[in-house]
Design goal:
This protein is 43% helix and 21% strand. With 237 residues, it is of the alpha/beta class. A seven-stranded mixed β-sheet has the order 3-2-1-4-5-7-6, with helices on both faces. The protein binds S-adenosylmethionine.
């Protein structure tokens, strides 16, 4: 760990377990003030489009009770509210919650232990957070617990293009340009950790199988923008 700000040390192996949870929380506390700015610049505002698509792919009627988990600065919360949903945002980083720009209620909570009763929620969104959790199975189990039968999930995250040429370009952009620009605008170590953290994501078949095994059907992956982002959707059985 970098002593000055607890952001993961890029020269150390990727943290796991409690060390990972602490590092992730500290890192987001540190980068919170410029998180939105860096996102918009790095993705050329494609992130805005992906989140709106995520809300459409929830496929729930207006007025649905939706949790946006790992809500960060509240981008998805705003989109859910604009779509007429009753949204609540939850995040583990107080820095991100403090920097949030949304009117929806925000709760400081761990997505792996939700403060919500079983079978009470219509939908869950979660943007760019899967690789930040210490483990995915407990997260999917928690989603299955709180959602009513027929409830929907949409998980938005980064991905790697299948096309070989795009993949090379993407790896240069994500592995070199993003850490450089992120370092200039925000925190160098945090934006060096970001591309490395993709290694936490299991291969696609394993990821989809884990969602299904937790109690979901219609598990689908939709690739966005040439495969640099992915939307995973599923319905609670
Ligand atoms: C890359 S940000 C994504 C923020 C937002 N969802 C978005 O679309 O921009 C990842 C977020 O996950 C949060 N996070 C990481 N682990 C978490 C956990 N176990 N429970 C809740 N939030 C968590 C971080 O604090 C951070 O705000």
């Amino acid at each position: 760990m970098n002593k000055s700000n607890n952001v993961p040390d890029p020269s150390a192996p990727l943290p796991t377990g409690k060390a990972k949870a602490a590092a992730v929380r500290s890192m987001f506390d540190v980068i919170a003030p410029r998180y939105d700015l860096v996102n918009r610049i790095m993705t050329f505002r494609l992130d805005v489009r992906w989140r709106r698509l995520a809300v459409r792919r929830l496929g729930l009627p207006a007025g649905s009770q939706v949790l946006d988990l790992a809500c960060g600065t509240g981008d998805l919360c705003r989109d859910l509210q604009a779509a007429g949903h009753c949204a609540v945002g939850m995040d583990l980083s107080r820095g991100m919650l403090d920097a949030a720009r949304t009117d929806v209620p925000l709760v400081h909570a761990d997505a792996l232990r939700l403060p919500a009763a079983a079978n009470t929620i219509d939908g869950v969104t979660c943007g760019f957070a899967l690789r930040n959790f210490t483990s995915l199975e407990p997260f999917f189990a928690e989603l299955a617990r709180v959602l009513r039968p027929g409830g929907r999930i949409v998980l938005l995250d980064v991905d790697q293009p299948r096309n070989a040429v795009l993949r090379i370009g993407h790896s240069i952009y994500f592995g070199r340009v993003v850490p450089f620009v992120g370092g200039l605008l925000s925190n160098k170590n945090a934006y060096r950790y970001l591309p490395r953290s993709v290694a936490y994501l299991p291969p696609e078949p394993q990821l989809l199988a884990a969602i299904e095994a937790a109690g979901f059907s219609e598990v689908t992956k939709h690739s966005c923008s040439g495969g640099i982002a992915q939307l995973l959707t599923a319905t609670r059985t």
